[in-house]
Design brief:
The chain is 34% helix and 14% strand. It is built from five helices and six strands, in the order βαβαβαβαβαβ. It has a four-stranded mixed sheet with strand order 3-4-5-6. It has a two-stranded antiparallel ribbon with strand order 1-2. The N terminus is likely disordered.
């Protein structure tokens, strides 16, 4: 099974914004160190990492590899930032779960699930680890 380091929306969004984007596939967790080193060797300025489960155990593995080669990283899961990663940008999953409870309530009261509207997230969370010194970045307040 192929696991991509980028979400499927990333290539068209990068093209629209006019900057190059290289995708690196990781098939096994053992390939992660080589993939990060390859990204740096190919001139990457940063890593964009989705929430794939294989990157989570332990949560500091990928941030430590990125710090070794001085690549800033953006994650979906907040756990990477709490470990040692640089930043996370994600939908507010707690708000989504609360809305999910609203849908359960409506269905249990007789609403037809097919007729319920599909909602998009309206709140996002940006988390920045100001303690990340290995990258040599100054994060403005």
């Amino acid at each position: 099974m192929n696991r991509l380091l980028l979400p499927i929306e990333a290539p068209p969004a990068a093209a629209q914004l006019g900057f190059p984007l290289d995708m690196i596939e990781v098939h096994e967790i053992e390939e992660l160190a080589a993939a990060v080193a390859r990204a740096k060797k190919q001139g990457a300025d940063a890593l964009l990492v989705p929430g794939e489960a294989m990157f989570h155990s332990p949560p500091n593995r990928l941030p430590n590899l990125a710090a070794e080669v001085k690549l800033p990283e953006l994650y979906l899961p907040r756990a990477f930032v709490e470990a040692v990663g640089l930043m996370s940008y994600r939908p507010d999953f707690e708000a989504i779960e609360r809305r999910g409870a609203h849908y359960v309530d409506r269905i249990l009261r007789g609403a037809n699930p097919v007729e319920l509207p599909i909602e998009q997230p309206t709140r996002y969370q940006l988390v920045i680890n100001l303690q990340t010194k290995a990258l040599g970045l100054d994060v403005p307040s």
